[in-house]
Predict the structure.
Amino acid sequence: MKRLFERNYRPVESFINEIQILTRLRHRNLVSLYGCTSRHSRDLMLVYEHIPNGTVSSHLHGDQRNSSFLPWHLRMKIAIQTASALAYLHASDIIHRDVKTTNILLDNSFDAKVTDFGLSRLFPDDVTHVSTAPRGTPGYVDPDYRLCYQLTTKSDVYSFGVVLVELISSLKAVDMDRNREDIKLANLAIRKIQKGAFYELVDPSLGFHSDEKLKMMIGSVAELAFRCLQEDKELRPSMGEVLEVLERIHSGRDEPPNQDGIVVNGAIRASQSYVHPPLPNTLINPQQRLFKTN
């Protein structure tokens, strides 16, 4: 159950917005809305299906009492199911606008359920963007959106890129205890990539260094996360393309990374169904690797 305590404009707007969106959507990886109070009631309440296993954030960052370690196969499952839900939203002309690990719930089978549509926006099919003042959660907000106030589906792609880095690293999206330039996980990830040392971010409990197959899968997901985190939204893949790449990585159909890592230099692998956009020269030295597997 979700209760909105303040009876002012924004909570009422969020309440109505969430009802309007959830009543028109049906997807196995979106939380289901069972009912609500009237907007004229003393308390504004939304009643959801019960998802008993906490959030992805609580498991990754140790907030969940009795939280269990998430092995890589569960992290991949969560990534694919979340991407599937977001791709469905985008196909339904809806931008979630607040994608983050605290808004991904887990059931007892560790199936993902995306929740919290209070900030979501309907995206008319006859426009290229929606202009709004930046809102969202620090660490996940698309820098391009913050710069020009133009919300697009690529804003969700950026946020999902942060989620992918969290799944790889088990680090928080924002951590004030890190160095100033690394407070945002996205900045830390990009910096490590530019130095050819992204492997330093991988959660050591995943067994990354002792499993070659795992090493290749995490390398491929790291490459995908990097593309989602491009500051220029035009260089990011669509959510449908993200889902396709994740499914290909999971099935083993993805081409393995270069033996020494993922080359950032026109030699980056591409498939017939998904051609990677060119990387901006200002981000990566052509001789560097995205992901070294030493």
Residues 258-294 have pLDDT under 50 and may be disordered. The longest strand covers residues 44-48. The longest helix spans residues 72-91. The domain at 1-50 is CATH 3.30.200.20 (Phosphorylase Kinase; domain 1).
